[in-house]
Amino acid sequence: MTTQTLPIYQIDAFTDMLFAGNPAAVVPLSGWLADDVLQKIAMENNLSETAFFVPCDDRDDADFHIRWFTPTVEVPLCGHATLASAFVIFNHLGFKSDLLKLQSKSGILTARRDHDAIVLDFPKQPIKANEIPQEVLTALGGAKPVESYVVASRDTDIVAVYDNAKTVRDMAPDMSVLGRLTGRGVIVTAPGDKTGLDMISRFFVPAIGINEDPVTGYMHCVVAPYWADKLGQEDVVGYQASARGGVVACKVAGDRVELKGEAILYLKGEIVVPA
Domains in the chain and their CATH numbers? Predict the structure, then answer.
């Protein structure tokens, strides 16, 4: 079998410390590999997401075209793997500009250097009221939310709003049940319980091979607009209360959400894949 060697990076995103935040693999490419090869690389990496990107040509209004894969499926948007990719492009690939444009299945995304942080500009993810099935509530531990929604663009993403951060922090879902009951994921969120935190959230997605995503940019495009509206302010700070944990500073502006976070290099190496 003919093979080729590709660079790979593993980045801890939405953190300035190793072994925290959300790890993502980043594989820069000169041209697209077959989809099944991309999926197998993501499966082999066994992280919540692996990002791949290729340079755009001069006709495109973007610098790179980016795609994201979990160990089992391709997804249309991923915040932490975009942050990780921007970190690699800015710090390891010689990209000179402070503004990066990425073409994706969710449209044009931008990443901007801001001192040691990177600011992502993502589309807001609207929600609509919807009752949560009792089976899902039971799998979450039985606590009844004060409000419940689904993400309008992805009707299988459930959003459960609680009035107590401790309920969210202490939640221990039955992942085997959640993986069977929901088509994708469950977001749980509550008001912040510490100074400087406006919201506490978690994201369970066993249906796509991730029991709990450590720190999720996409999820904050769902919960930040909700809490910004509730609190009457554009800027909200979220803490994702996973085992690794991470802080995401958000700014809601119309139909866009800016996500600000840091990232740090954990691993740089090479992988060998079919040519």
Answer: 3-123+260-274 (3.10.310.10), 127-254 (3.10.310.10)
